[in-house]
Design a protein that fits this description.
With 105 residues, this protein is an alpha+beta fold. The chain has two helices and four strands; from the N terminus they run ββββαα. β2 and β3 form a beta hairpin.
Length: 105
């Protein structure tokens, strides 16, 4: 894992459904985020409590809804924030699972 890249990436907190920190995992996530209407991405590194480094890339998109918003010329199409928040919740669940299972394999 790149020791030069990791320090400049954003720290991603592992949080529960109420957005409260979950420090018990002992994992550290550093990543680059990306958000557009109906598109949310997260890619980076997860270091498990045991020190194992995992690389990941998560892409979520509703391409039909994105095209419809672009067709209408809508800067913030209805439903895009809700969609992106749901994908970010999925990203959290994946990261939390990998943080726990990453040391088991």
């Amino acid at each position: 894992v790149s020791d030069r890249l990791r320090p400049i990436m954003k720290v991603i907190r592992l949080v529960d459904e109420n957005r409260k920190d979950i420090p018990a995992t002992g994992a550290e996530v550093r990543a680059k985020t990306g958000t557009l209407n109906f598109v949310t991405t997260l890619s980076g590194y997860l270091r498990t409590a045991g020190g194992r480094d995992l690389a990941f890339a998560i892409f979520g998109a509703d391409l039909e809804a994105r095209q419809e918003g672009k067709r209408r010329g809508d800067e913030t199409p209805a439903g895009s924030a809700i969609y992106n928040n749901r994908v970010k919740g999925l990203q959290q669940r994946l990261l939390q699972r990998w943080a726990v299972l990453g040391d088991l394999t």
